[in-house]
Design a protein that fits this description.
34% helix; 344 residues; globular; 13 helices; alpha+beta
Length: 344
């Protein structure tokens, strides 16, 4: 294979992990030489990225892509850039800009009772056009949230400050150092904060491979949460779609491209006898451990059955601009169901 053909193949593989434009992936790979084709990070940078992944992937909303992220852009000499979708649809049916939703979940504030919301220590380093540059207080870290064209972060911040004031709360993201409220929060929940640091390499690695949740499994709905040092993902596949967990489980720990993960336990129900009722669900559960972080684990719960989270999921995702090819794969049209206003 020619050098150009090899680079093209590498670029297309990288895109399945990152969601980058082809030309960007190709040009980035040209400059890596002997470096890994998909870079990872450690320390405070990994913690920052992990916190973003954790707070944007916990479900409760619909967006064009899982987690509300259309892709990331990675290079060795620039901060990670996280491309946000346009809007999310909240559980009550309202559309809300993903950029605003991300700010709500991430930027720290103190409530009237002294409790800290958002990510303690997260700070705004800069606003440049559609880009919100984030860092951690007193740390050399940087992450860029890129909103869609026309995103006005300054308008959002003004509105957010007004909303907090109405609720007798106050923003903390303007302080260059950790505030007393944030110090107290860290001291009050040492196990929680310690667990966040433990899972940072995993969370950062997942964010840098976030496109896999769109390109490499059959789920139309993805949610995650952490319990101590365990990161749990629940992925739903509709019952008239073939459950595919092997693609994701093959790519995420793959040599060169993936993370140092290995399956230590699993329970697969794919070959079990047919269910006696369409009301029931099956679940294939896989436990993976991170070889570089003792005690850090990742669990996937691949669920297969009726559409639990919203029977009109396809219509919601169509309204939000999901890719038609992806929709036809994970939520194919059900003519009989559509006639009744039901997808599954």
């Amino acid at each position: 294979m020619s050098a150009g053909g090899r680079l093209s193949t590498l670029a297309r593989t990288r895109i399945t992990y990152t969601g980058e434009p082809y030309q960007f992936a190709l040009e980035t790979l040209k400059g890596t030489h002997d470096l890994p084709p998909l870079p990872d990070v450690t320390g405070e940078q990994a913690l920052l990225e992990s916190q973003v992944m954790a707070n944007l992937s916990d479900g409760g909303t619909w967006s064009a892509h899982p987690v509300g992220i259309s892709g990331v852009r990675l290079s060795w000499d620039n901060p990670i850039m996280v491309h946000l979708d346009s809007h999310v649809e909240l559980s009550r049916g309202e559309n809300y800009p993903v950029a605003w939703h991300a700010g709500d979940r991430l930027l720290p504030y103190v409530g009237g009772g002294g409790e800290v919301g958002g990510v303690a220590g997260l700070r705004i380093a800069a606003i440049r056009g559609n880009d919100l540059h984030l860092t951690l207080a007193s740390a050399d870290s940087r992450l860029i949230l890129r909103g869609i064209t026309g995103t006005r972060w300054s308008d959002y911040l003004d509105e957010r400050r007004r909303d907090l004031a109405v609720g007798h709360a106050a923003p903390l993201w303007d302080s260059p150092e950790l505030t007393d409220f944030e110090w107290q929060d860290k001291q009050s929940y040492p196990r929680t904060r310690g667990a966040e640091e433990d899972v940072a390499p995993l969370g950062s690695g997942l964010l840098r491979r976030v496109a896999l949740f769109h390109t490499s499994n059959s789920a139309y709905s993805s949610r995650s949460w952490t319990t101590g040092s365990d990161w749990i993902f629940e992925l739903d596949t509709r019952r008239d779609v073939r459950l595919d967990h092997d693609t994701l489980l093959g790519k995420l720990p793959a040599p060169v491209w993936g993370l140092p993960l290995r399956v230590v336990e699993h329970h697969c129900t794919c070959d079990d006898p047919p269910l006696t009722s369409d009301r029931y669900m099956r679940q294939c559960t896989y436990e993976l451990v991170h070889d570089d972080v003792p005690g850090c684990a990742l669990q996937f719960r691949f669920r297969w059955g009726p559409a639990v989270y919203g029977k009109d999921a396809r219509r919601q995702l169509e309204r939000l601009g999901s890719d038609l090819g992806w929709l036809n794969r994970v939520l194919p049209r059900n003519i009989l169901g559509s006639a009744r206003g039901v997808i599954a």
